[in-house]
Specification:
The complex is a heterodimer of chains A (115) and B (112). With 115 residues, chain A is mainly β. In chain A, 0% of the residues lie in helices and 50% in strands. Chain A is built from no helices and 11 strands. The relative contact order of chain B is 0.34. Chain B has 112 residues and is mainly β. The radius of gyration of chain B is 13 Å and the shape is globular. Classes of the chains: A mainly beta (115), B mainly beta (112).
């Protein structure tokens, strides 16, 4: 059974930074694209970023380009999202998702940006 | 960016009856590799989304066969042949052909 477990969320002030982690198990992690998707309170889903199997290709939604960085460590079956320059509009539940077409999802990690 | 629209945005489905949700893309979703990367997800309240269908009509393992996906040009459809109580929640379509991937606004389904 595939499991994706996010960690690292919480409350941060505007302009601050957070690093989300996603621990993967039950899949050959190094063979799959991995993604981050977020959901603002009461809103729909927004695809944020993804990263290719070898980590050499990353894609981002425009609203986070230059502020967020997605990375992975295949030796540790882990996915990361470094979030800098956080804004109130980044407040959301952040989901880790596996495979390019988002076959597997974690339970989500809340991130709140507020003073 | 590709804009995905869904209709209806809210649906009161009747137990045991069929239901249908439409999704339209602002441009073709046919990838250069010949595939059409249109997915459907279901999200129950307080739960993460679950993928139901990939590439327009491929049902994921464990998804009941009452769910089916289809297309007609740039219009895509998710059909539930006989609605059950567990089908409540929000259904999203998503395109994975063009960067950035984009979701539809969601269709909230209640079951009466």
């Amino acid at each position: 059974e595939v499991q994706l477990v996010e960690s690292g969320g919480g409350l941060v002030q505007p302009g601050g930074s957070l690093r989300l982690s996603c621990a993967a198990s039950g899949l050959t992690f190094s063979t799959y694209w991995m993604s981050w998707v977020r959901q603002a309170p009461g809103k729909g889903l927004e695809w944020v970023a993804n990263i290719k199997q070898d980590g050499r290709v990353q894609n981002y939604v425009d609203s986070v380009k230059g502020r967020f960085t997605v990375s992975r460590d295949n030796a540790y079956n882990s996915l990361y999202l470094q979030m800098n320059g956080l804004r109130a509009e980044d407040t959301a539940v952040y989901y880790c998702a596996g495979q390019l077409s988002l076959k597997w999802w974690g339970q989500g990690m809340p991130v709140t940006v507020s003073s | 960016d590709v804009v995905m629209t869904q209709s209806p945005l809210s649906l009161a489905a009747t137990l045991g009856q069929p239901a249908s949700i439409s999704c339209r893309s602002s441009q073709s979703l046919v990838h250069s590799d010949g595939n059409t990367y249109l997915m459907w997800f279901h999200q129950r309240p307080g739960q993460p989304p679950r993928r139901l269908i990939s590439r327009v009509s491929n049902r994921d393992s464990g998804v009941p066969d009452r769910f089916s996906g289809g297309e007609s040009g740039s219009d895509f459809t998710l059909k539930i042949s006989r609605v059950e109580a567990e089908d409540v929640g929000v259904y999203y379509c998503m395109q994975g052909t063009h960067w950035p991937f984009t979701f539809g606004p969601g269709t909230k389904v209640d079951v009466k």
